[in-house]
């Protein structure tokens, strides 16, 4: 690691990792702002399209949380979600995001899917499935349209709990996607033991495909594996046409990424839906 030597006095030299102090400060600020937050009014949802290139149709949208804090400004989900998990506030955030997502989605054509992310802590919350079923009723949305996205990290922390929770979502009619597959603690035993319907191929693979032969072989094998296991495979992080073409050659047909669209505000979804229908 890069280290700075900072001289406090003639005899005292302290080493610390570059950026570490900033990190601690920003975590503390974020934690404070989160605990002050009037959540639901500071949180927004964005939606990113999921595209079926074989049928040239819009599959649906993934919901992505956005937080605008009046004290510290915009904080990306990669920063505030892990902190919210440690303070326990994530349970409230998840519920609020679900509510906002379903409220926006109730105006969409009812063949469109709605992707919702859940965290490791949400899995331990007994009420999450019932809460979501209730929200579906309230907004007149068929639970079959919901896809729950869970990361490997969430599954590893409590494997038995994850299985029970995912089964309950499935009993309610919802689908399950393994998110970020190929990043982090990938284990093929997830594919064997979790009740999955889809796998989302992590963007790090997708983005290495043009330059890295090994990456391409791994992506190819994972796509084939999904096919054998009858799991849908969604490639994430498509930024240019060459990545799309490569992945199509490998047999992948479902995609998400800036190449199709960046995440958008709820009121931008209708014109995207209309444009997609005209293609
Ligand atoms: P994720 O679930 O893997 O979401 C995809 C992330 O990739 C999003 O980042 C999206 O904006 C970004 N992305 C999409 N297309 C591209 C592309 O072509 N290139 C690149 N470089 N990036 C692309 P975002 O919105 O910052 O979210 C980051 C992560 O935060 C999400 O990763 C997810 O793990 C978490 N997250 C977001 N919203 C929620 C939520 O409501 N609940 C929970 N538990 N986690 C959330
Ligand atoms: Ca079409
Ligand atoms: Ca996701
Ligand atoms: Ca992902």
UniProtKB/TrEMBL annotation:
Domain EAL: 27-277
Domain of life, per lineage: Bacteria
The protein, known as: EAL domain-containing protein
Organism, scientific name: Maritalea mediterranea
Residue numbers of the full-length protein present here: 366 to 644 of 650
């Amino acid at each position: 690691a890069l280290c700075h030597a900072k001289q406090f006095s003639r005899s005292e030299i302290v080493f610390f990792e570059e950026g570490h102090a900033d990190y601690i400060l920003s975590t503390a600020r974020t934690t404070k702002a989160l605990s002050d937050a009037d959540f639901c009014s500071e949180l927004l949802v964005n939606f990113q399209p999921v595209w079926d290139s074989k049928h040239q149709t819009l599959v649906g949208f993934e919901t992505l949380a956005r937080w605008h804090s009046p004290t510290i400004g915009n904080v990306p989900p990669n920063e505030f979600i892990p902190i919210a998990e440690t303070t326990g506030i994530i349970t409230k955030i998840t519920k609020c995001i679900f509510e906002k997502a379903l409220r926006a989605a109730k105006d969409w054509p009812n063949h469109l899917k709605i992707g919702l992310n859940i965290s490791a802590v949400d899995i331990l919350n007994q009420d999450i499935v019932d809460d979501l079923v209730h929200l579906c009723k309230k907004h007149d949305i068929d639970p079959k349209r919901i896809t729950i996205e869970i990361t490997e990290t969430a599954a590893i922390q409590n494997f038995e709990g994850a299985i029970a929770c995912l089964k309950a979502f499935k009993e309610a009619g919802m689908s399950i996607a393994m998110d970020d597959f190929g990043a982090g603690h990938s284990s093929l035993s997830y594919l064997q033991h979790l009740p999955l319907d889809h796998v989302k191929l992590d963007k790090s693979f997708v983005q290495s495909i043009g330059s890295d032969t090994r990456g391409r072989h791994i992506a190819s094998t994972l796509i084939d594996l999904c096919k054998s296991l009858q799991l849908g495979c969604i490639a994430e992080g498509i930024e240019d046409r060459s990545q799309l073409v490569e992945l199509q050659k490998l047999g992948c047909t479902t995609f998400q990424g800036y190449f199709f669209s960046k995440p958008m505000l709820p009121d931008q979804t209708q014109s995207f839906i209309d444009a997609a229908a005209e293609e």
